[in-house]
Design goal:
rod-shaped, 94 residues, mainly alpha
């Protein structure tokens, strides 16, 4: 007897079994790809809404900075006409 004899396989796997497992893996892979596409769509929507919010916030900050820059000029321009914290009788004396 020769020590290099081929031992028989305990599990006989047919081509049909291989194709069945391959089809099962292909189906699972398609499911994963569909889920990834849905997640990508969700992430794109979130970033779109975030971009819109950032734009609105930057516009609001720009308006606030502009108003805070102009407010001292408006107060100085109207200060001869408006006397803060004084009664009406003392305003007429001046």
């Amino acid at each position: 007897m020769c020590a290099t004899s081929v031992m028989p396989l305990n599990d006989d796997v047919s081509h049909g079994d291989i194709y069945h497992k391959l089809g099962s893996l292909e189906g699972k892979l398609e499911t994963v790809l569909i889920q990834l596409a849905e997640k990508r769509t969700d992430i794109t929507g979130v970033f779109s809404r975030l971009r819109e919010i950032e734009t609105r916030v930057s516009i609001g900050v720009g308006i606030a900075v502009g108003l805070s820059f102009l407010m001292p000029f408006v107060i100085n321009a109207s200060s001869p006409k408006v006397h803060f914290g004084q009664s009406e009788s003392t305003q007429q004396v001046k």
